[in-house]
Amino acid sequence: MPVRIRLARTGRKKVPTYRVVVADSKSPRDGKFIEVVGRYDPRTDPAIVEIDNEKSVRWLMQGAQPSEQVRNLLRISGAWEEFEKLKAERTGTRQKAAKQGRTSARGKSAGAKARSSSKAGKAAGSRGGTRGGKSGSEDSVEASADEAAKS
Q1: Distance of CA 57 to the CA centre of its chain
Q2: Does residue 110 come out as left (phi exceeding 0), alpha (psi in the -120 to 50 range) or beta?
Q3: Which of 119, 41, 49 lies closest to 77, judged by CA?
Q4: Which end of the chain is more exposed for a tag (fewer CB within 10 A), N or C?
């Protein structure tokens, strides 16, 4: 279930206000949502942007994808910078663990992970990438051999 952080319109005709909501990507714009993380009123000068940074960062860390407008609102509120900082810390920790040879989050050491992926690459290379399991050069060699046998 892909989750998006997006705007849901509220307010009466020609007077829009928006909720910043976390919703399933397949639900309609103003339909069912999981959680409200803020609100946005574009008609005031300056526009009102109220976003709960803790909730929005938590959803972003879980993989929710913001719409373009919501990403801009998250930058205004400061939540996007918090998210990028936490994300950089998390990836930095993983990279340090991999360099030191410790086990990764999936339970394999960095060396074992590299060995298993190289074995998978060798097996995929031996199968070939074209239909029928033959590479393009093998196919042309067989075709020329067939032509030579016919003549």
Answers
A1: 15
A2: alpha
A3: 49
A4: C
| Sheet bearing 35-41, strands edge to edge | 48-51, 35-41, 17-24, 3-10, 65-66
pLDDT in tens, 2-52: 899 999 999 999 999 999 999 998 888 878 889 999 999 999 999 999 999
In the chain, where the domains are located = 3-77
pTM: 0.60
pLDDT in tens, 77-120: 999 999 999 999 888 777 777 777 655 455 554 444 444 444 44
